[in-house]
Each structure stands twice: as C-alpha cells, then as structure tokens.
Amino acid sequence: MMASSAPMPDHQLTTQDGVPLKTKLARAERMNKMKSLALVLPLALFLLLTFIVPIGSLLFRSVDNPEVVASLPHTIKAISSWDGKSLPPEPVYRAFAADLVKAHEDQTLGDLGKRLNMEVAGYRSLLGKTARALPFDPAPASYKDALVKLDERWGDPAYWQAIRRNSTNHTPFYLLAALDHRIDEVGEVAKATPDQAIYLDVFARTFWMSAIVTVICLLLAYPLAYLLANLPTRKSNLLMIMVLLPFWTSVLVRVAAWIVLLQSGGLINSALMALGITDHPLQLVFNRTGVYIAMVHILMPFMILPIYSVMKGISPTYLRAAVSLGSHPFGAFWKVYFPQTVAGVGAGGLLVFILSIGYYITPALLGSPNDQMVSYFVAFYTNTTINWGMATALGGLLLAATLVLYMVYSWLVGASRLRLG
C-alpha cells in the first residue's frame, strides 16, 4: 500500500498560560523597545529643547523680515500692483503717509528705518525727516506732490523698490549679503558692490587660516603622539599630563600670556636678541604669526589625543615583522603603521579644523584687522549693531560648512573601510 501524503499537523509551541510562544516573544520585544525609548526620551527632549530648538530659532532669524510688513501694512497692499519702473501712484503715497504716522506713534520707526537703510543708504534719516513733517495740515490734494516737495528722494523709484522688495515676512537679503550678493532694482540676484563684497574673502581667510593651523598641529602632534604611545607607561603618563595641562587654564589667560611673550619687549624677543639671532625685535604679535602660534598651542591637545588613542591600539609587532621581512624602517612605517593611524589623523584634523573656523578671542586679541575670522563679524553684528539677521546668516553658513566637512569625513572613512574590507 502507498503511504498517505496528508500534511502533518502544525504543532504550535505555547507557554504555560496557552499563549503562542511566537506571540509572547513579539510582546516581550515590543516591551523592551518601549523601555529603551522611555530611557532615551529624556535625553532626546533635553537635546531638542536646549540644542535643536535654539539653533533652529536663530537660523530662522536669517530669513525673518517683519519690520517693513509690520510697520507699513497699507503701503505693502497698495504697492503690490505697482510695475516697479515709474513712480508709484497716488494711493501708495497716501497709504505710506498714514502708515508712517502710525509707525511714529507706535515707536516702530527705528526698526523700520534700520531695515530699509540696509537696502538704500540714507533711508533712516529720510524716514525720520518725513515722520516729523507728518501729518500734513491741512491735508494736501496730492500726497505724492507733497512728499516729493518735502524731499526729492521720494521721487526716486529706488526708495519705493526697497519697500516693495520687503513686502513679505521672509527675505533672502541676509543670506545673499553673507555671500556677497544682493537683489537689484529689477528683482534679480546680482553681485554686491565692491565696497560691500567682503564676506567671501572673510570666509576664504577663515578656511585658509584654519587649514594652516590644522596642518601645523598635525605635523607637531603626530610624532608626539607616537612618542606617547611607545614610551614606558610612567614616562608616557608624565608627558600626557604636560599635554593636558593647558586644558586647566582659561583660553583668555593663555592668549594674554602669549601677548606678554610675543610683544616687542617680551621674553621671546629679548631671548632672540640676547642670543644674537636678531638685532631688533620681531613683529610676532598683532599679526597672523601671533594668531597661528596661539591657536596651535591651544588646539594641539585636540589633535594629539585622537591620534594617540588610535596608536595605542596598534601592536608594535607589525613594524618589527615588516622590517624582519626586508622592508626599510621608513617604508615599513609608511606602508604598515601610518595607514592604521589614518582614522585618528582624520578625527583630529576634523576636530581642530572645526574648532578653528569658529575661533573669535584669539584672532581678536592677537591679530590685526586683516586677520579676523567669520566669528568676529558674528559677534560684531550680535553685540554692536544688533543685526541678528546678518549674524545668524553668517553663523548659519559656518554651520553648513561644518556639516559638509563632517559628511565628507564620514564618506571618506566609510570608503576607506570598504577598501580595507
């Protein structure tokens, strides 16, 4: 007789309470995930409230443009149908006069003048002069003629085009200005005038100085990290204390100390002249040389520690094996040892470069006006002119550059791991 081909019954495993084991395991896994999320949630909320939200609100200020819309609502509505070429029609002038009187009463004229003065020089004084003359008594038959008679600049379309360009709550003005561009009279993006095109040079200077500092730190830190990784433990610990010692001193104190050391009558110039190396004091401070010296001194530990942490995990037998197989010591170091330290070099270089592009105190105290970096202008617009739009635009571009650098570094590290794999 042929054997039966009927399927065997599906015996499902169950727990003692009759629940299928598969279902029970799924519930346990979901519960573990919920517990993990509950543990991470406080940290996530902390980061959201103290890091992401403040940065997002600050970055929003780089495109926020409330001054003109809030102070000239009727003018904005009336000017929307203007062709932007000839002078606006009479209703625009009438609405503007009414809005200006209200802005003067509400004490918002200062913010309005400050914002429009960024578009056209002299706009603030023009608004102040016009607000003092308003309201006209008796009311003129033509506000257009009355305003042009009061000041001939109201007969220039450029002043009305500035209002029209700011007829929305958001503007690319600050971001474009931070990239040395502007919106011209016809509404097209154009290059800034030569006297206003300074920020691209500032960004280039910032990246160049940061790259120089990073390279110098790498050249000095790599052999020191190698020495730390290969010295006996007692000597290595003593040397590590010397490396970490600057962390216990304020950056401002260290910069002030470098001013004392590098000035014309300082210890370094005195020693150089006493040794006969030079017959006159060298200019080592209030220039880029002083900035480089102080920044390298401050940032050196940030390069040493990542490289040292990688070198400490590399076995010295690799080099000895390469040399015993006939390789030259330098060739063995370059082909066997150095590739294993690339991750530490990349991490240290990225850390030092990112810290460098955000430096403010050291260039401000030790450098000349031509040595100031982007952070100086961020502080200037924040503390001096109270121009949050420009400050956040410059800071936002600096943050974007940092993120791009981090992504490039992550891509390079990932690509190197794939090649090694």
UniProtKB/TrEMBL annotation:
It is found in: Cell membrane. Belongs to the binding-protein-dependent transport system permease family. CysTW subfamily. Residues 203-409 form the ABC transmembrane type-1 domain. This is ABC transporter permease. The chain crosses the membrane at residues 37-60, 207-229, 238-261, 291-311, 342-366, 386-409. InterPro entries: MetI-like, MetI-like_sf. Pfam families: BPD_transp_1. Its main location: membrane. It is a multi-pass membrane protein. CDD domains: TM_PBP2. Keywords: Cell membrane, Membrane, Transmembrane, Transmembrane helix, Transport. It comes from Crenobacter oryzisoli.
